[in-house]
Amino acid sequence: MSVDARQRIIEATYACVARRGMAKTTVEDVAREAGISRATVYRTFPGGRDELVDATVSWAVFDFFAKLYDRIQGATDLEEVMERGIMFAHRSIVEHEVLQRVMQTEPDKLLPALTVESNRIREGIAEVLAPFVVDRGLAPGVDLSNAADFLARMVLSYISAPGRWDLEDPAQVARLVRSELLAGVVVPASGG
Amino acid sequence: MTYRSNVAHAQGELRVADTVVPFVAPASAESPHRVRIIDGTLACLARHGTVKTTVDDIARESGVSRATVYRAFPGGRDEILGAVVDTEMARLFSALGVRLGTAGTLTTALVGGIVEASTRLRDHAALHFLVEHEPGMILGHLAFDESDRLLVTASRFTAPFLARWMSPHEAERVAEWAARIVLSYAISPSDRLDLCDEADATLLVTTFMLPGIEALQNVSTGLIDITPYPTGGIQPGGGHDTARGGGGAPA
Known about the structure:
The complex is a heterodimer of chains A (192) and B (251).
Chain A: H1 3-20, H2 27-34, H3 38-44, H4 48-72, H5 78-95, H6 97-105, H7 107-136, H8 144-160, H9 170-181
Chain B: E1 2-4, E2 7-10, E3 13-16, E4 20-22, H1 34-48, H2 55-62, H3 66-72, H4 77-102, H5 106-122, H6 125-133, H7 135-139, H8 144-162, H9 168-187, H10 198-220
């Protein structure tokens, strides 16, 4: 099946999940929502419902990071990338109605899929950050892959669970970025 | 010393609740068999998970009668599962307390705590079975708001030990940070750094944590001047004043 059909089915699945949750979404519903036959859905996603749901979570995560990537375009250095990215990502998670609702009602359905995604997400974040780290100046003796992986882990941790940090407050985010996140990773402050 | 835990259970689901309970292993007082039953339950969980473990299984595994189980835990299976979570938390925190309390330097405290917690998580057979076969139950504690609560619980207990080297306020932040690190590497192990390994944990602490702690202190005392970048459009109503030092910097 074409990329187009695949995309249409995924968006239909997302719409169904948004309306009635993951458990109650059937292949039948998705076919109706997309305006195609059940057979076409199964041709595109032979694994049926489970495969559909996984693909939809994957797509939603990708969509989220595409927006995040847009958000950091034009940032001039690593600090700015991280501050903008963290604030935007945290806010997007808090305001993501479908995510929040599914987390409330069926975390057991969503979390395993998100956990599978999280390795890919982490690698993606590390890849985006690495060149900024190099530009900014890697601290002496620090391994770039270790540093990028560490940063990506921490970013994921803070945006999903801020703990004592108020990620709505730019001053706190600035402090977080310059201490727990970057202090060991890059050479000391280049003025600013 | 108190820690936040205690367990409320709805439909067999475990949840870390908001109540503050005294930091003692919730054992012995009512029945001399409680610890034995809890350990028997852990063995059952490691083999069958929560769904398939019955009170009969627990009694058999613990070598006591069904009646004895109910005398120790009148609430039955749900109460036992709650006690298991409390006990395992208490055991983890006691072990952490020993490592942190005997450490002579900040580095050994951080490394010891991280290695201890990481190793216990790695070797916890019941936890592994549940992550594998009943992921919703465990992952629920590791995501979003529940994860926040877990971080606060863990750091509230460990922070006082770190306050020997920094202000109580910073100690809480650093304890929370260490808990994040342990959780991140426990949930998705790295092929680069094994935090159960003393040398790897030391590398992580000295490379990333010690400079970060120093920066936390400098930023909170205003030594480092920070001006957040304009957040253009992210916060429609919010200003982005030049600010120093985040909130509530201690002396």
